[in-house]
Amino acid sequence: MTSKKTPLYMKIANKLLADIQSGSLKGGEKLPTEYELADTFEVSRLTIRKALDYLIARNILIKQKNHGTFVVEQSKIQSGASGLAGFSEIIRNLGMTPSTKLIEMTEVFLPSEEIRIRLELEDKESVIFIKRVRYANETPLVIENLHIRKKYLGDITQVDFETESLFETIEQHILIGYSQQEISAELVSDSTAALLDIEKGSPILLVDTTTSSIQGEPLLIDLSYYRPDKYTFKNILKRNH
């Protein structure tokens, strides 16, 4: 069985993307010309053009007529700006492409006392634990650690948690009403830094969320790590009178 080789233009696109993610190429910076890139990578201009077109289609680069190709300045993603929405909804609404890598999924028959209390579990009720990394335009942004009441997921063997929306899956069984969040900051662990492609020991946002149904029944707990260089949270605070 022969392995499928990565096309040459994709290797170049991935190298340019890595330079952007590492900061070697910064937002707003002009790229070398197609001729210069072709010389650098020792390929044809057609190959360079395909690589650039691939990144332009994903809103990573932008071509300005008579001026050249530039790195798009990515503003921070804002959670809460348009109400309660899932990660994929937020990313798609920004014109970006969401993707997910499933790290772990297991059924927990004996949840911790904290999980049992927060989710108001019934006797012998199990939860599904899911750990996954969320991406926007192939850049890792969030690590989710989810505890979800199994009865609101249905047959999990029929759900692809890398491609299907968690909120939409739950809402096949019960409508989601609201979430409560606690946000704090800490220094990232080595394992989390590796998954999010950030420096070890750098600051990270820890967001502890409980999501409930319209009736107020707890559905899931989400302990997530967000990159503060890519994400902000918007809250509306009302004064009590």
TrEMBL record:
The keyword Isomerase does not apply. SMART domains: HTH_GNTR (SM00345), UTRA (SM00866). The keyword Transcription applies. GO terms for molecular function: DNA binding; DNA-binding transcription factor activity. It holds the Pfam family GntR. Keywords: DNA-binding, Transcription, Transcription regulation. GO terms for biological process: negative regulation of DNA-templated transcription. PROSITE patterns: HTH_GNTR. Residues 6-74 form the HTH gntR-type domain. CDD domains: WHTH_GntR (cd07377). NCBIfam families: GntR_LSA1692 (NF041547). This is HTH gntR-type domain-containing protein. It comes from Vagococcus fessus. The lineage of its organism: Bacteria, Bacillati, Bacillota, Bacilli, Lactobacillales.
